[in-house]
Specification:
The complex is a heterodimer of chains A (47) and B (245). Chain A contains one helix and no strands. With 47 residues, chain A is mostly helical. Chain A has a domain of 32 residues. The radius of gyration of chain A is 20 Å and the shape is rod-shaped. Chain B has 245 residues and is mainly α. Chain B has seven helices and no strands. Chain B is elongated and about 85 Å long. In chain B, 36% of the residues are buried. The chains are: A mainly alpha (47), B mainly alpha (245). The interface between A and B is medium-sized, with 24 and 34 residues.
């Protein structure tokens, strides 16, 4: 592999990794919020 | 909303810093283009230190004040720090192969202590899964986070204390603060990348902290559900016993 190949591999994995982690966090946050909203809805209905 | 704006600013900053490091700053005379990896590699390593520093301080704060919000912050620091340590190692391997001729060398103190740092904080994250009790989990994690933090200065100063394959600090050597070994243009590009990745780090830290707080609430629901179920079982059992008695 050429120097440019190593540079692309380094930047590519690191920047893509940050992007994937941010997206994964956003998804988990959305799911957690939806789950709590559902619970609050159930509590309101029960009340 | 403010966090979302921070996310967009961080994204723009990282793209700008990457363009600067990849295309605008000249290549190194000796190492050629491979030296460009230094900007993401070194910045990732520093942010990993900061992240684990947050974990240690928040853990210490938890042991003093017993506030679970500090435990959530410690968790956020550890998870984000593990990611940046992995990136620092990956960047180092991609830089090491063209410059040293090898991806990795276990005899090198910097590489080995960094691998140990990664293992320690992966262990920290695994330890947190061993118990559902938030207070016990937070206390155990705080102690482990503080012990693991001892490795941070060892990693940083390993290139000064011991001989190895890894080069000395670029600008982190206390005796070279005013006279860094790298040219000023390279140091500036590194600081630009460090600034951009710091914005990303703060954004991820906030998001992970928010998730930890929401996870608590869900755990709390599960625990309350268990207590309620146990209470019902007790009532049913005592109700079944009453006629017999």
């Amino acid at each position: 592999m050429t120097d440019a190949g190593f540079v692309i591999a380094a930047y590519g994995v690191i920047l893509a990794g940050i992007g994937l982690y941010a997206a994964w966090l956003a998804r988990r946050l959305r799911m957690a919020r939806e789950s709590l909203q559902r619970r609050d809805g159930d509590v309101d209905e029960a009340g | 909303m403010k966090t979302r704006i921070l996310g967009f600013v961080a994204l723009a900053a990282v793209i700008g810093a990457a363009i600067n490091g990849l295309f605008l700053v000249p290549a190194d005379l000796n190492q050629g283009d491979a030296q460009r990896i230094m900007y993401v590699h070194v910045a990732s390593a520093w942010i990993a230190y900061a992240s684990f520093g947050v974990t240690a301080l928040a853990g210490l704060g938890y042991l003093i004040w017993r506030d679970l919000r500090l435990d959530a912050l410690a968790l956020a620091g550890a998870e984000v720090g593990v990611m940046f340590t992995a990136f620092a190692i990956w960047g180092g391997m991609m830089w090491g192969r063209p410059v040293w001729g090898v991806y990795w060398q276990w005899e090198d103190p910097r590489l080995t202590t960094t691998a140990l740092l990664l293992a320690l904080y992966v262990g920290y994250l695994l330890l947190r899964r061993l118990t559902d009790d938030p207070a016990r989990r937070a206390a155990r994690a705080a102690v482990v986070g503080l012990i693991a933090a001892v490795d941070i200065p060892i990693v940083h100063f390993s290139v000064i204390w011991w001989r190895g394959l890894h080069q000395g600090p670029t600008i982190g050597d206390p005796s070279k603060i005013l006279h860094p070994s790298a040219p000023l243009l390279f140091v500036m590009a590194l600081l630009v990348m460090l600034g951009a990745l710091t914005l990303v780090w703060v954004y991820l830290l906030i998001r992970r902290y928010q998730l930890a707080r929401l996870d608590w609430e869900r755990e709390d629901d599960v625990r309350r559900g268990r207590v309620e179920a146990a209470r019902r079982v007790t009532v049913v059992a005592s109700g079944a016993e009453e006629p017999a008695g």
